[in-house]
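User: Reviewer 2 asked us to show a designed sequence for the structure in our supplementary figure. I'm pasting the structure tokens here. Could you produce the per-position amino acids so we can include them in the response letter?
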């Protein structure tokens, strides 16, 4: 009788332990998804602002059509991306296109002085800063989930319940070369 109670107690403890690990992984997965939702909000603001910025620049830079077309296409790709990983890839492409726009704007002093452009540029800069913060939060949530999935004892149960290591929001390899270089400041 005592042995049966001990066996039942041990089984109950193991079941509670498994439930605890599973619930923690679910919480971490949901935190990661919530973190990406925060990125989505910032991306939506960015996507809504980009057409205004492009329209303003078009008025000044007719011959920059290729760059503006690239931005428009990248924005469309972002809006049509469905999975988190597709959205990360599409957003990296849009970030690269917008960086090209910033470089192009340097050639147009009249554009830089235009009040509408300055306001849009300020809003875009604000959104980019918020987006960077949201990406850091997303990567933090992803790291926590990955730690739970890859460390003992979670790694034993993760595969059983379908939890896998998830990718971080990182700079694309072709952008890494540019990011690693110090910016050139000219007066």
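Assistant: Here is a per-position design you can include in the supplement:
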């Amino acid at each position: 009788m005592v042995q049966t109670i001990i066996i039942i107690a041990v089984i109950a403890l193991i079941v509670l332990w498994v439930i605890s690990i599973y619930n923690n992984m679910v919480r971490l997965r949901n935190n990661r998804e919530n973190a990406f939702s925060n990125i989505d909000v910032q991306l939506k603001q960015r996507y809504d602002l980009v057409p205004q910025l492009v329209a303003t620049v078009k008025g000044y830079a007719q011959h920059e059509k290729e760059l503006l077309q690239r931005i428009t296409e990248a924005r469309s790709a972002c809006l049509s991306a469905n999975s988190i990983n597709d959205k990360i890839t599409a957003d990296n492409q849009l970030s690269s296109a917008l960086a090209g726009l910033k470089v192009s704007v340097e050639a147009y002093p009249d554009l830089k002085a235009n009040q509408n452009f300055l306001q849009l540029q300020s809003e875009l800069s604000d959104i980019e800063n918020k987006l960077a913060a949201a990406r850091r939060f997303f990567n933090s949530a992803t790291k926590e989930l990955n730690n739970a999935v890859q460390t003992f004892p979670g790694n034993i149960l993760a595969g059983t319940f379908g939890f896998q290591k998830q990718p971080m929001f990182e700079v694309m390899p072709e952008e890494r070369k540019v990011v690693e270089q110090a910016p050139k400041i000219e007066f």
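For the response letter, you might also mention the following. Residues 76 and 117 are 22 Å apart (CA to CA). Residues 2-60 form the longest helix (59 residues).
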